[in-house]
CSC1-like protein ERD4 (Salix suchowensis), 1052 residues
Amino acid sequence: MRAKLERNRLIRIFKSIYPETFYRSMVVTDNKEVNKIYEKLEGYKKKLAHAEAVYDGSKKTGKPEGLRPTTKIGTLGPVGRKVDSIEHYNEKIKELIPKLEAEQKTTLREKQEACAFAFFTNRVAAASAAQSLHAQMVDTWTVVEAPEPRQVIWSNLKIKYFQRIIRQYAVSFIVALTILFYMIPIGLISALTTLENLKKLLPFLKSILDITPVKTVLEAYLPQIALNVFLALLPKLLLALSKAEGIPSVGHAVRATSGKYFYFTVLNVFIGVTLGGTLFRTFKSIGKEPNSIVKLLASSLPGNASFFLTFVALKFFVGYGLELSRVVPLIIFHLKKKYLCKTEAELKQAWFPGDLGYATRIPGDMLVITIALCYSVIAPLSIPFGVVYFGLGWLVLRNQALKVYVPSFESYGKMWPHINARVLAALILFQVTIFGYLGLKKFSSRALFLIPLPILSLLFAYVCKKKFYRSFSDTALEVASRELKEIPDMESVFRSFIPPSLSSEKADDDHFEDALSHVSRIGSFA
Amino acid sequence: MRAKLERNRLIRIFKSIYPETFYRSMVVTDNKEVNKIYEKLEGYKKKLAHAEAVYDGSKKTGKPEGLRPTTKIGTLGPVGRKVDSIEHYNEKIKELIPKLEAEQKTTLREKQEACAFAFFTNRVAAASAAQSLHAQMVDTWTVVEAPEPRQVIWSNLKIKYFQRIIRQYAVSFIVALTILFYMIPIGLISALTTLENLKKLLPFLKSILDITPVKTVLEAYLPQIALNVFLALLPKLLLALSKAEGIPSVGHAVRATSGKYFYFTVLNVFIGVTLGGTLFRTFKSIGKEPNSIVKLLASSLPGNASFFLTFVALKFFVGYGLELSRVVPLIIFHLKKKYLCKTEAELKQAWFPGDLGYATRIPGDMLVITIALCYSVIAPLSIPFGVVYFGLGWLVLRNQALKVYVPSFESYGKMWPHINARVLAALILFQVTIFGYLGLKKFSSRALFLIPLPILSLLFAYVCKKKFYRSFSDTALEVASRELKEIPDMESVFRSFIPPSLSSEKADDDHFEDALSHVSRIGSFA
C-alpha cells in the first residue's frame, strides 16, 4: 500500500514536470516467482510437443495406432512410476495455467518495486529526462535511459543508487582477486607445457612425442592450445559478476564483461606469459626489484616473441577456419537432429546460431592488437601477422555478422568508446615497454626521445574521452530532435516492455491495463 | 556573415528541440571596445557632476557668481593648458555619446561571438536544457546554466570547451607554483619574527623592546601580525587567476578563489608554519626522511600550539572587533567626505559597504577549523578558542550580513559543497596527524585503533559528494517544476541580461531589438 502511495506521488510529480510529453509508466515488479512458474509451464509445453512428435513418429514407423511415449515421475527419477507422457504433461499444463494467472495478478498488485519505466510521447523529452537530475537528493530518484526491451535485466532494475555503487566496488575487488588468482595456473602452464617438461613429467608419452611430425606440431602449438582452453573457462564467470554489479542492461553487462576479460587477458596472458615464461629464468631479479616491472617486461619480451606470434597465427588459421566453416556447430546440429530433436521448434533452436559474442571476441581482438603493437619493434613479423589477423577477420566476421549470427540486442555503437579506450591503452603500453626496451640497449640515452610519445597518446586519449564518449552514454538532443521516417506507435512501444511471463494470453489484457498503469493516458504522440 | 549563418542554424535547431518553450536568444558580443567608451563616458559624467557641485559650493561660500573650477588638459597633466572644467566635460560627453552609439551598433552587428544566452518560457525546460547534451560532439555545443545577470563575466562566455580545460590546467599549475613560492617568505617570517631574532637583526630597537609591556605584547602578536599582513596580499592575485580560468560567473570565480586560498592557507600557514617554526630545529630529520611528512608534522605540532592559539585569538579579538565597529571604513569615509566627495552619488559610493568577501573570509574560517581540530588533542585549549571564534562569528557576521554588507550576487547556497568538502578535509588531516602523533608516543600500538577514523571520514565524504553535491550544480527538475509565487515577466528577464554599456538610453531600443534577436517571439510564458 505504501508503495502504491509513493508511486501515485511520483506520477503526480512526473505529470507536473512533463505535463505534455509524459505518456504513461510501467512499474517494475519482482518477477522471480512468476518467471519460475512461466518457465516450468513453457518447459512442459515443449515436452508435450516433443512427446506428441514422438507419438506421431511412432505412428508412421511402427503400429498404426502408435506407441504412446511414457515418462517416469517422482523424486527418484528413473525408479519412479511410469505414466503416459502426453496425458501427464497436459495435466501439468492445466494445473499451471491458473497458477500462473494468479501469480501474475499477485505480482502486478503486490510485488511492485520502487522503480518504473516512464514512456514519453516526445523523443527530445525522453532524451533530456534521462540526463537531468530529478530530485534534489541524488539517490532518491535516479534516472537512466531505458535499454531496449530485450536487453532489460529486470532483477537489476530495482537496485538502489548506493547499493549499486557498493556492488560495483565489491565486484571490482572480486575481479581483481580472480585476475591475480588466475595468474598462478597460467604461469605454471606456460612453464610446464614445453615438450621437455612434458617428457619429464609424463615419461610414458616419450615414444609418441619423439615422432618428428608430432614433435614439430606439439612444440609449436602445445602451450597455445593449453592457454586457449584455459581462457575459455572464464567469460561465464565474468558475465555473472557483471550482472551482479547491478547493471540493468544486457548490452552494458556484456561490455563490462568484455572490459574485465580484457584486463584479464592483458595482465595474465600478455604480462603473465611474458614474465611467467621467464619466471624461472629471472626469478631472482623480480625478488630484488619488484617495482621495476617496465624494465623487466622489456627485457622479457624478446624471449616470448615466438610464443605470441604462434598464438596470433593459431587464432587466425585455426580460429577463423573454425569460425567460417562452423564445423563444430554443424556436427552438434546433426547429432541433435538425429537423436534429440523431434519438433520443428526444437530443430530451429538447434540450428540457431546465437549472437556474435562480444564479451569474448572483443578482448581477444584487443589482445592481438596489444601483441602486434608491443612486438612491432622487437619482432617486426608481428605487424604482418596482425594485419593478416584483422584483414581476415574483416572478411570472415563481416560475413558471419551479416549472414550467420543473429544479434540479440542493439547497443547503437556503445562498444566504440570501450574499444577506443583499450586500443589506446595498448598503444601506451607499447610505448612504455619500448621505452624500457630501448633503455636497456646501447641507445639508452636516445630512448629519452620516446618520452613525448606516451604523453601525446595520453593527451589524445583525454581529448577523445572528453569530445566523443559522452554522446555514447547520453543521447544528444539535436539527434533526438531529428525527424523520424516512421512514427512508432506508443502503445506497441509500451507493450514491448512487458516481460513474456507477465503478458497474459487473453486478448483483452484488462487486468494488466488495470495494474500496470493507473495513469489515464495524457497527450498524444508529438 | 558566417557567424550570422551559424547563428541562424543554431536558432533553427533550438526551435526544433524546444518548439514550445524557447523564448528568444541573446547573442554574446565582444564588448571590449564599447565598454571602454562607456566607462570613459561614465567617468566624464561623474567628473562633470563633481565640477558642478564644486561650482555650486563656491557660490555659497565665496562670491555670489561663484568660482568656475578649472582642469588642466593635455598629456603632460599638471603642466597642460587650463580650461573650464564644466565646459570641457560637457564637450567630451557630447563627443562620446555618438561615438558610443556607433560602437554599440558595430558591436551588436559585427562583433557577435559564437555563444548566446537562451531564454525559455518554462523553468523545467531551462533546467533540463542546462543538463543535457545538445550536439553529438561534446565541444561543438556546450551548455551551462546562465548565472544571474550581475554575475556574468561577459569576456569569459565565449571561451571554447577545450580552451577552458587548458586554461584550468595552466592556472592550477601557476597556483601550485604560487603556493610553493610563498612557502619560502612565510617560513622566513615565522623564523625571524621572534623577539630574540629581531633584537639581533635590528639592535637599535633593543632599548624599546626591553620595556616589559611592549615586550609582552610584541612577543605574543608580532609573528601573527606579520603573517596576517602577508596573507592580505594574495586574494586579488588568486581572483584574477580564477577569472583567467574562463569561469563565466563571478560567484563561481569567488568560490574558485576561496578554494585556492584555502589550499594556500592550509599548506603555507598551517603546515608551513608548523614545519617552518621547527625548520631550524628539525632540519636534519627532514633531510633524512623527506616523505615522512605525517610523522614530522605530528612531532612538530606541539611546538607551535601557542602560535596558532594566539593566531585564533587575534582573529576573534582584533578581527571581530574591527569587523563589528567598522572603525577603518568609518575613518576612510569621513576623510573622503571632508576632502573628496562633493556630490550625493560620491558620498553614497564612499559609504557603500561592499559585500561579505567570501573569497578570503571562508578560507580564514576553514583555517581556524583546521587549527581547532588538529590541536584539539595536543592542546585542548584550541577547542574553546574555536568555539569562541565561531560563536562570536555567528553573532558578529550574522549582524554584518543582515544589516551592513550588500550582497553583490546570489549563488543559491553553492558555497555549501565547497565548505563541506573543506571541513571534511580538515577533519581527515586532523585524524591523520593525530594518528602520527600518538604513534610517536608510548601508546604507539593503540594508535592503530585510530585507523578506521580517516577511512570512515573518507566514506562519509564520498557519500556526501554523491548524494548532495549534484543538486548544487544542476537544478533538480522536481524543484524547477514547483509553482512560483509570482511569474516573472520574460521581457524584463531578457532585458536584465543586457550589459549597461550596450543598453541604449533611447526609449524605443529599436536597433537593439533588431540586432540582438532575429527570432520572432514564439510561445508565451507557461
Observations:
- Confidence is low (pLDDT under 50) at residues 506-526 of chain A.
- Residues 56 and 261 of chain A are 48 Å apart (CA to CA).
